[in-house]
TrEMBL record:
Keyword flag Amino-acid biosynthesis: yes
GO molecular function: branched-chain-amino-acid transaminase activity
Protein name, entry field: Probable branched-chain-amino-acid aminotransferase
Swiss-Prot/TrEMBL cofactor(s): pyridoxal 5'-phosphate
Chemical reaction(s) catalysed: L-valine + 2-oxoglutarate = 3-methyl-2-oxobutanoate + L-glutamate; L-isoleucine + 2-oxoglutarate = (S)-3-methyl-2-oxopentanoate + L-glutamate; L-leucine + 2-oxoglutarate = 4-methyl-2-oxopentanoate + L-glutamate
Length: 286
């Protein structure tokens, strides 16, 4: 089936879908994005993703390209036209098209909006989670505003490529004090020897993942003890469990960090329970 992309008001065949060469996203990485899980044809946590989009846009003083209700229609229509039952929908907003100049363009310049959607086989994702993944650690060389979900992802791209070349799936960024911040495209968690769930506070050094927020609710419902505090690489290596969260990974166990086995090298009970219970707590639109 041919894929369709939404680009600035038009639904186009994926192969022909493009933005102008002087789009500020292309020239400067001057834009933001969101990725939302699609499950049984519906977006998961649409409201939270759109709220975070608005926050990212406000931080960068980029206008919302259309009212949120209209944006919801475009997202749903892109999902429908691509016949996605299970997968993801991606949206990107940039500061628009203007002659290349670092200064913001004329305020009347319309922001650019691109939306794509694609299917992901849930059985394959479950198979990955069933095995667990390997991560490597890399120095966190990103700017301070990683709380904004910008399309400027070069450090993340380089870190994840280094992970791939080392036979791992994710890279965990480590700050100057030796604490894990987050993954290249995921939030990072551990379960300590005495069963406490630990993840870094969202007030600094990380993106406030929507999946992270919902998993904290799941953890509370499961009566798990949670500490929102930074943890070191050494603590993670000695942990009972480690895992990552994101809209596309849900909770996926980490079974190796820099080649060291975590626990018995199999996905642990906490990561499994959080993954299994996630959709009971996430908001799925109708
Ligand atoms: N951190 C980073 C750097 C990410 O790119 C992502 C995925 N977008 C996350 C965390 C997880 O966020 P979410 O749970 O909203 O997908």
């Amino acid at each position: 089936m041919s894929r369709i992309a939404y680009v600035n008001g038009a639904y186009l065949p994926h192969a022909d879908a493009g933005v102008h060469v002087e789009d500020r996203g292309y020239q400067f990485g001057d834009g933001v994005y969101e990725v939302c899980e699609v499950r049984a044809g519906h977006m998961v946590d649409e409201r939270r993703h759109l709220e975070r989009l608005v926050r990212s846009l406000n931080e960068l003083r980029i206008r919302l390209p259309m009212p949120l209700a209209a944006l919801g229609v475009v997202l749903r229509e892109t999902i429908r036209r691509n016949r996605v039952r299970n997968g993801l929908v991606y949206l990107q907003v940039t500061r628009g098209v203007a002659r290349r100049d670092h200064y913001f363009p004329d305020p009347a310049t319309p922001p650019s909006l691109v939306v794509t959607a694609r299917s992901v086989d849930p059985a394959r994702a479950d198979a990955v989670a069933g095995e667990g993944i390997a991560v490597i650690t890399v120095p966190d060389n990103r700017w301070e505003r990683v709380d904004i979900k910008t399309i400027g992802l070069l450090p993340n791209v380089l870190a994840k490529q280094a992970a791939k070349q080392a036979g791992a799936r994710e890279a965990w960024f480590v700050d100057a004090s030796g604490h894990v911040t987050e993954g290249g495209s995921t939030n990072a968690w551990i379960v300590t020897g005495d069963g406490r769930l630990v993840t870094r506070p969202a007030e600094g050094g990380i993106l406030r993942g929507i999946t992270r927020t919902v998993m904290l609710e799941v953890a509370e419902a499961l009566q798990l003890r949670v500490d929102e505090r930074p943890f070191t690489v050494a603590e993670a290596r000695a942990a009972r469990e480690a895992f990552v969260t994101s809209a596309t990974n849900l909770a996926t166990a980490v079974v190796r960090i820099d080649g060291h086995l975590i626990g018995d090298g199999r996905p642990g009970a906490v990561a499994r329970a959080l993954r299994e219970n996630f959709h009971k707590y996430a908001q799925t639109g109708r």
